[in-house]
Structure prediction request, 267 residues.
Amino acid sequence: MKYRFQYIESVPSLPNAAMVRGSFVHRVLELLLARAAQDRTLDAVRKDFEIAEGEFRLRDDFRLLLLDATSEADFWESCRECVRAYYRIEQPATANIVELEKWVSTPLGEFELGGFIDRLERDDDGLVVSDYKTGAPKPLRFSTDYLRQLTYYALMCETQLNETPHSVRIYYLGGGKDEHTRDERVVTQAVTDATLADVRDTARRVFGEIEAGKSSGEFATNVTNLCNWCDFKQWCPAHGGDIGQALAAGTERVALRRREAGLPEKT
Prediction:
């Protein structure tokens, strides 16, 4: 159902601070790790933070947050704390980066999967697909969805690079300074024949469900507590909403926020 709202009905949504923080921290670390290993100093990351901040202050998603002075100061401090957490996880000069923001894809029968790998690195055992999460650390058993996402990228590497990463890894950068150990912040899962088969099967199943939904007009819903954070809950049939109102109402909601932010209306 969320796929229908986003990609079939094309209902626009508003950014939230967590999303923008994630994008911002990714950008800072992309700038830092694009430097030669010996140049990834504290002075360099301070400069990269300033560069990224200058970029984001001009971006629509940041401006649409409509942060007041206090909230904005809190936002930037939370971003700094994520970068500090990264330094508690690893020394950037030791990171053996293969590529950053690398596009990979693979065909799977009737469709193709594609996406950008945030960080492709190499250790003594081979390639590792990695990503940063700016939320608080989750144990391995609660990181399943994130790890599955990264395993899709491992599958794409297998096709595109003719080399299968041996592991996928999440670096959790959120949470309080002294609340989590390094082992809690770095969650790794091996890439095996079984995990690759699982993502292949899941992708084919979901593709089949989407195609069936397009034909029948019936899209499945999964009602959980997470619905409270969904941009489309008010129009979702599972919550008594009218999907037919979503596009007009969602477009007007975004247009109003853009006017509040002093941004031109999108055409």
Remarks:
- The radius of gyration is 20 Å.
- The mean pLDDT is 95.
- The chain has nine helices and five strands.
- The CA atoms of residues 227 and 233 lie 6 Å apart.
